[in-house]
Amino acid sequence: MRFHISSIVTKVYKQFDARWLIIIAIAAFLRFYNISSFATFLGDQGRDALIMQDIVTLKHFPAIGPPTSVGLIYMGPFFYYLIAPFLLIANFNPLGPAIGTALYSLIGLAIVGLMTQRYTNKTTASLCMLALAISSFLTDAAKFAWNPNLLPYFAFATFYFYYEMIVKRNYAAAFLTGLLFGFSLQLHPLVLLTAVGLVLGVFISLLRTKDKKILTLILVAIVGFTLATAPLIIFDLRHNFINTHSLISLFHSNSATKISITLSSFWQTTYKLFYIALPFTNNYNPVVLPTIAYILYQSINRSIREKNRFILMHLCIVMLYILLFTLVKVEKFPHYYGSIILSFYLVLLYPFFNTKCMPCKVGGVIAIAAFVLINAIRFNFLFNTGSNQIKHAQDIARDIAPHIDKGPYQLATIPFTEADEQYRYFLTHEVAFKQLDERSLEQPSELFVLCFEPCRAVDDAQWVIASFKDKHVQEVFTVQNITIYKLVHKRVTIHQ
Predict the structure, then answer these.
(1) SS3 sequence of the chain
(2) Average pLDDT of the chain?
(3) Separation of CA 7 from chain center
């Protein structure tokens, strides 16, 4: 297939709606305003910053990503390489990756608009873009760097090219389907739940058309998927299929999953999606829930009447995901819905303003106004000062740095559940001595124990502390309510 840049630009120009510029401007303002104050920079972000720092300084190129909180499954390194350039551009300021995430979310917003318009119309595309721009869930996610935060856009693009593959028998679309699904999998493994709907769609299409070309398209998609997930595949082959075993354990182990579903559990999973997409309070349940039900009914009715299989595909993906996610007995955190949140918005907005019924249009305006209002009241960054987590971590690191006299040095926290990677990152810039990785077996010259609660630093059972030979407290000091014990290998006077 030949692609001509001029023809592509012409098509995009014809599809582009001037209203989108206003929507993108609103989205940009909400994502970038006060971002330095509200950007999350805790353990996960500190760990990622350390890894991305090694990438841009050419010290190390990881083939595996961070572990997830779901079944100890390792994600791929795609996010690191996607965001790392922004750390370099920002001169190693961790705000760079946050800005990069916000920028990618804006690009994703525009692409979703173009994709939506292709199989609906400019009104639906504009409404969808407005919902994504205003959504407090997506706005908050765009303000800091974290793997799942870009999943909604990659998942939606995967579904779009999947539809193109099935409907148009397009080989390029098949390759992009596999490639984007592979990237999505590296952003969060729960995107696998959408694969069930995609596979069912392939079988249904194959049974209806008897077109064997579909099998060739699937092979092309597999090639794209293999290319995207090559680092994960190599990692699994070299480590006795640790990820594969973890995935099997997640969905089949009695400790993680009980293969049963009740109406109550299904409703709780569904209600959580409603609340994330439309963050209403319980007081408004009698109004909001029937309204959502009515809108979904109208969306299904219209898509069936107009034979819009694109909308029906998204509806099926959302329904199957909720059903399967109900089976996974984990806490339903908001980012676990990232794979389907854009599809849900599209299905909800499809029936709006596509009728000659004036009362319906008035109702649509009221519904959109209510959506804007319930999200706007959650925009704390417009009126308040954030926690300045980046500056907070940097200040603590700068206060610790003068106490580090030689290397290698190591950090530990009490309780061990407290993260220290955000301080580790800044210490690499404040101190020239070698910092040991938290998993290092090497004996440090100095060990700094950060106590976030009253503790006995010398007697703690953590391996890093317990294995520190001939330990003695050389110094105790306090940094921003954190009591820090400096342990060394020989007895000296304690300074307090």
Answers:
(1) CCCCHHHHHHHHHHHCCCHHHHHHHHHHHHHHCCHHHHCCCCHHHHHHHHHHHHHHCCCCCCCCCCECCCCCCECCCHHHHHHHHHHHHCCCCCHHHHHHHHHHHHHHHHHHHHHHHHHCCHHHHHHHHHHHHHCHHHHHHCCCCCHHHHHHHHHHHHHHHHHHHHHHCCHHHHHHHHHHHHHHHHHCHHHHHHHHHHHHHHHHHHHHHCCCHHHHHHHHHHHHHHHHCHHHHHHHHHCCCHHHHHHHHHHHCCCCECCCCCHHHHHHHHHHHHHHHCCCCHHHHHHHHHHHHHHHHHHHHHHHHCCCHHHHHHHHHHHHHHHHHHHECCCCCHHHHCCCHHHHHHHHHCCCCCCCCHHHHHHHHHHHHHHHHHHHCCCHHHCCCCCCHHHHHHHHHHHHHHHCCCCCEEEEEECCCCCCHHHHHHHHHHCCCCECCCCCCCCCCEEEEEECCCCCCCCCCCHHHHCCCCCEEEEEEEECCEEEEEEECCCCCCEC
(2) 89
(3) 34
Rounded to whole angstroms, the Cα distance separating 251 from 274 reads 24
Q: Indicate if 408 and 358 belong to the same structural domain.
A: no
Of the residues 350, 381, 412, the one at which a domain ends: 381
Instruction: Decide if 7 is inside a domain.
Output: no
pLDDT tens for 347-394 read 999 988 776 667 667 777 888 899 999 999 999 999 898 999 999 999
What whole-number percentage of the chain has pLDDT above 90? 67
Tokens 């290698």 correspond to what residue?
A: 408
Task: Give the total number of structural domains in the chain.
Answer: 2
Is residue 268 situated within a structural domain?
A: yes
Let me know if residue 496 belongs to a domain.
no
Q: What is the mean pLDDT of residues 231-248?
A: 79
| Chain Cα centroid distance, residue 238 | 27
Q: Range of 459's domain? A: 389-488
- Indicate the residue among 381, 406, 435 that finishes a domain: 381
Supply φ then ψ for residue 54, to 5 degrees: -65, -35
Asked, for residue 30, whether it belongs to a domain, the answer is yes
Proportion of the chain above pLDDT 70, given as a percent: 91
Residues 50 and 128 in one domain: yes
Per-residue pLDDT tens for 208-232?
Answer: 888 888 999 999 999 999 999 998 8
- Structure-token match 């935060």, residue found: 149
Beta bridge partners of 478: 483
CA 78, 163, 194: angle at the middle one, nearest 5? 55
